[in-house]
Amino acid sequence: MEIQAQAASDNPGQPITINGQTYILDRELATTVLNRVCLALDSDGQKVVIKISTSPRGDPSNVESYRLSSLYPHVFRHARLPRMRYRDLRYVVVDYVQGSPLTDHIATITISQIHSLMSSLAPHVDTLRSHDMAHRDIKPPNVILEDSPSNLRPDTVRLIDYDLLVRVDDISRYSPRVYGTPFYIPPEYCSGNLHRNNDIYALGMVGFVLLPPSCSSSIYRNPKVISGSFPPYAIMGSKVNGRFFLPDAPKKLEESLVPQVIDCERRKLRALLNFLFSCVKDSPQDRPATLHEMRQMLDDTGNITEL
Prior knowledge:
Layout: E1 15-18, E2 21-31, E3 35-41, E4 47-53, H1 61-71, H2 73-78, E5 84-87, E6 91-95, E7 100-101, H3 111-130, E8 133-134, E9 143-145, E10 157-159, E11 166-167, H4 171-174, H5 187-190, H6 198-210, H7 213-219, H8 223-226, E12 238-240, E13 243-245, H9 263-279, H10 291-298
Antiparallel strand pairs: 1-2, 2-3, 3-4, 4-6, 5-6, 7-9, 8-11, 9-10, 12-13
Helix pairs in contact: 3-6, 3-9, 3-10, 6-9
């Protein structure tokens, strides 16, 4: 299938033809080690995201990701992944998701909103897991809120950027290298072993990143964090001997770790921390195994399970 691409420059209004379809480039959104990411308009004026590979040859996992998006459209729909219009080893064209990235809300999101976010993201992550798929790059920039943080529901939270999506059983065949983002990569994957609970670890790390400084300094009793030398999330992952881990993380949730907040928030925070600590356990087999288990942990009306 021949592709013609007329010089995709940085100038707004530049046309680019991919697989016979012409798009008008609007602006560059980002440049990564793998792709140049651009916002564009299709022939009907609808916004799309075009990713142009910055490497001479695309990674073989691109083929697998495209194959999965074709075979499992119902999974993608329920996991709230944007529709893929076209993909080959050089280009990716997906629907543009309107909203704000989670990174825009890190400084202002409340405990109750983090709790709601975890409850909203859990079904999408579990949908991929139940089909033995791993997103491999769940992190705040790849979570889009289509509504305000005060109105979080599963249908207002979207996962984007599934360039690294792969079947867990196919990891050695399609992508033997370790991909992802430091802090969000689970220990077993740093050693080359991808488990179906890979994304559960990343989900827990997203929750830790969002915690306000008062919670972070209570959990991580590191003088540099408490004194403000690092942002609250800077020590969430430290690379030691080739693996990422949570330094000095308590083995169980204790009352002394829960700051004094209003009663309603306190119950949510206890449930939230219980959930997050379970998600980031070293052994993937010890992480929440089902959506029902995740929902039970996030239930702020009952008793909190000891970790």
